Amino acid sequence: MDFPEVMNPPKLARDVLRVIPLGGLGDVGRNMAMFEINGKILLVDCGVLFPEDAHPGVDLILPAFDLLSDRLDDIVGLVLTHGHEDHIGAVPYLLKQRQDIPVFGSQLTLGLLAEKFREHRIRNADLRTVAAGDRVAVDEFELEFVAVNHSIPDALAVALRTKGGLVLHTGDFKMDQLPLDRRITDLRAFARLGEEGVDLFMTDSTNAEVPGFTTPEKDIQPAIERVFANSEKRIVVACFASHVHRVQQVLNAAARHGRKVCYVGRSMVKNMGVAEKLGYLEVPDNIIVSLKELDRYRPDQVVLLSTGSQGEPLSALSRMANKEHPAIELTEGDTVLLASSLIPGNENSVYRVINGLSRLGVDVVHKGNALVHVSGHASAGELLYCYNIVQPTNVMPVHGEIRHLIANGKLAEATGVPADHVMLVEDGGVVDLSGSKAEVVGRIDAPYIFVDGTMRGVTESQLSDRLILGEEGFISVIAVVNLHSKKLVSGPEIQARGFLEGDQDKMFDGIRAEIAKALTDALEEGVSDTYRLQQVIRRRIGRWVSGKLRRRPMIVPVVVST
Amino acid sequence: MDFPEVMNPPKLARDVLRVIPLGGLGDVGRNMAMFEINGKILLVDCGVLFPEDAHPGVDLILPAFDLLSDRLDDIVGLVLTHGHEDHIGAVPYLLKQRQDIPVFGSQLTLGLLAEKFREHRIRNADLRTVAAGDRVAVDEFELEFVAVNHSIPDALAVALRTKGGLVLHTGDFKMDQLPLDRRITDLRAFARLGEEGVDLFMTDSTNAEVPGFTTPEKDIQPAIERVFANSEKRIVVACFASHVHRVQQVLNAAARHGRKVCYVGRSMVKNMGVAEKLGYLEVPDNIIVSLKELDRYRPDQVVLLSTGSQGEPLSALSRMANKEHPAIELTEGDTVLLASSLIPGNENSVYRVINGLSRLGVDVVHKGNALVHVSGHASAGELLYCYNIVQPTNVMPVHGEIRHLIANGKLAEATGVPADHVMLVEDGGVVDLSGSKAEVVGRIDAPYIFVDGTMRGVTESQLSDRLILGEEGFISVIAVVNLHSKKLVSGPEIQARGFLEGDQDKMFDGIRAEIAKALTDALEEGVSDTYRLQQVIRRRIGRWVSGKLRRRPMIVPVVVST
């Protein structure tokens, strides 16, 4: 195992391929890998990471692609393995830096991306649709695309042939042997590439800790069927808005049971529109009804397909649970099916929704009490198959937290890959590949890029300010002085938020007088700049709040000179 | 199902027993039940709830016992079922209101409580030790205590005989048939009380959603044994500091493998001291070593018993994972055993610890990859046994979120309890019991009481301020005016935190001028009080930040008049 500290890599030698993960190694999200050889750069995926409590007010976290800002012209292409947010969500932000980067992806992937571009008003992107089996020469890189099965259709693995060696990057994948669309992970291609000799195998680590095999998608059909068979009232199914196959199963069940289907939630409507238009979703004739038409039908004649399976506070489902949805009111006897995973960190919000629904008398079916979700990622057993079929010279686990990467690396070792051929790195780790020789040659800093409502970056310092403000509140002391007459003209006025109750004014009487005296003294002693006077205030008020109130609010002293 | 809105209950009639949960019905935590008959009040448990992200800077949440503040003298006793924080943690805050409330509990429960009192400097508490089988008359209530098995020793259920009927309250319990201390849940007593006729059965709902039976504590011994057998370096075991039996198993394994044991973390040292002193923990001779003595031993000669199994940022384990622990440095080959549950909401922090340890090359064994934890609560199968043995007339599910209460109620119905005999209420629900007749007669508001570092209450409005500040930051605009000369003397000065970057001063030039003009105009138009001038500022700056920056920071206008 080897997680080097930040350490500059050597200059890149001719015909050596350098691999740097710019995101997704250390987190589940913001997946992005950078490949460089002979001055040319190819990127694989460009996704977002969704923030945690440690990132208040942050909407998205981007890969560290600002590292590329002075290399933009060297980028020869961006390959997208599939259409999930954590793989394509950051593309608009990258293209804002250089709009004509050639983007390679499958039909559905680019279809979903195009929707994003509309929102971000990106018009002149260079989108190049590719399909499994295609070979495309992109400058120093010869790309070959391989079909893989995942929780969204049309996912691709990509092989990169370079003078530095042959890399196979799986993207996200699993090996469902009986997928709804019959499109299996192409192990024949994996085998053929293995025979040719895979010098570096980059594999999805998300489920490497999970023993055995991921259950086939179709195995959740009985649970869905049971819900439709038993429900005498309204049915709501919540799942990821990109999970076309899950939606397909619900459409099929609805057709069998003569229920109309209503998409609820912007992204659900949008994505299913794309999926249907491109032929990835088979929609039975006139089964879809709009939210407006809903009241024409009895509850037992419809099923709602909704977003919000992760308990997102503003999502359709959360609003139903809080009786705040403008159009939909759930009542006793209705059924809600959460056909989705429970992403770690979302438990509180998901259970809040389940409790809210339960309080309404709604029956809630979820992965805790029925088989209504299967993962989109290969479990340990499947990864072992891959390693044995590809028999790679070197391995680099990608996509996951450290614990996942380590578990994946151990699986590779178990199949005979020598430990020192397992490139275990986090974001920013620099791996050089030359023929069959791969090694970690350094580690660059690969910081988070935060995005909030403003679509403007949020800095670490702003975040730490927010954390302090959120935990402790702030206290502001305003004084007006006259530096010429060396007098305190007015104040100090004290404003506090977030940590006091009762009559603040009275509470401040003592300290106000103390600060007034301190300022007067300082002025008389000849202190003649507002900055130093503000320091005087900071000291006094700081000692007071920590001593008297045991709090550490943010302190904002303001001295105005007239 | 019946969750009434807030609605005042009728005046309590003579010889009718009124039951009001003051906490723990709707949350997992702050458990407290109030029983009143003929003007006398008996309380069962008085625990804390640990806050979520929605409660920034809050340390604890208390039951709604401020509802009792004008009834303190009517309280005839407080019964504590066991020594967990969510059942005894709030006692000091209650006793600060009336210190001589008689407190009934088992030896260990009161032993742990006494430690709390020391910290809170409570000296004259009236502690009355009781044991399983004891019968105690407390004014209108005749109490009988029944042994139950839980994840802490010496837990008790309590039966209340009153003129209003017989209530059996299980507290937290499970039915491990082979517990380490051989002290099983006394189903004979449950049966005898059932024969006598239990009018209201209040049962632990925590695991009501979990099918089957909770695994016996001793079944995790093999996993612990395996860790000790395979580890050639240091072992760290993290578990709840109150889980005496879990610690006992580690002590036994350490003795078998000739390792010394070192307690790490204040509460672990404190609680195990109490447990040993009172004879609930059998400590092999001179096996315990202090942190100071640790460096006398090779890593393979010791096992550390540590707090922090929930990833608490300041706990010993988190510090080890971040290489910040002053005394303990973990390295490759060490093993950390997380012998604990993963409480929903703690996933992020726990996985952060696991990732940190993995990064150090530490082997992490946790409930995700081994049987190293069993629950302390009865699963559905066990609850069914209870209902069938007690055959209660009425049932009131307690301890859990709505989903748990509902699941528990359904189990009761499955054993033949009529639906309208299941009292399904949340905190503040008022249930009157008269003989065999129980009914929900109202619902009072049972608000959270927040406690932070100051040991002073935190109000809802402070919390919402903190949430805004934490998400959006704040912007403060300070202007000095002279109301007599109707002039803007100085400013406006603008201070912003948490949402801006770059040169703020320059950014504000435009709006500063705009506000200056608005103030001057207002003054000339005769606006002559600072409050209205502040409104002028609020409007301008508000429009500016939301329009220009798309943010909604807290706005704090300050107008000082000289």
TrEMBL record, chains A, B:
The active site is at residues 204, 377. Coiled coil: none annotated. It comes from the Bacteria. It is an enzyme of class 3 (hydrolase). Substrate binds at residues 241-243, 373-377. GO terms for molecular function: 5'-3' RNA exonuclease activity; RNA binding; RNA endonuclease activity; zinc ion binding. Keywords: Calcium, Cytoplasm, Endonuclease, Exonuclease, Hydrolase, Metal-binding, Nuclease, RNA-binding, rRNA processing, Zinc. It is found in: Cytoplasm. Its EC number is 3.1.-.-. Pfam families: Lactamase_B_2, RMMBL, RNase_J_b_CASP, RNase_J_C. Ca(2+) binds at residues 57, 59, 452. Zn(2+) binds at residues 82, 84, 86-87, 150, 172, 399. Binds 1 Ca(2+) cation per subunit. Seen in 1 crystal structure, it is not clear if it is physiologically important. Residues 29-224 form the Metallo-beta-lactamase domain. Its cofactor is Ca(2+); Zn(2+). One of its GO terms (cellular component) is cytoplasm. GO terms for biological process: rRNA processing. The keyword Nuclease applies. InterPro entries: Metallo-B-lactamas (IPR001279), RibonucZ/Hydroxyglut_hydro (IPR036866), RMMBL (IPR011108), RNase_J (IPR004613), RNase_J_2 (IPR042173), RNase_J_b_CASP (IPR055132), RNase_J_bac (IPR030854), RNase_J_C (IPR041636). Homodimer, may be a subunit of the RNA degradosome. NCBIfam families: MG423 (TIGR00649). An RNase that has 5'-3' exonuclease and possibly endonuclease activity. Involved in maturation of rRNA and in some organisms also mRNA maturation and/or decay. Belongs to the metallo-beta-lactamase superfamily. RNA-metabolizing metallo-beta-lactamase-like family. Bacterial RNase J subfamily. This is Ribonuclease J.
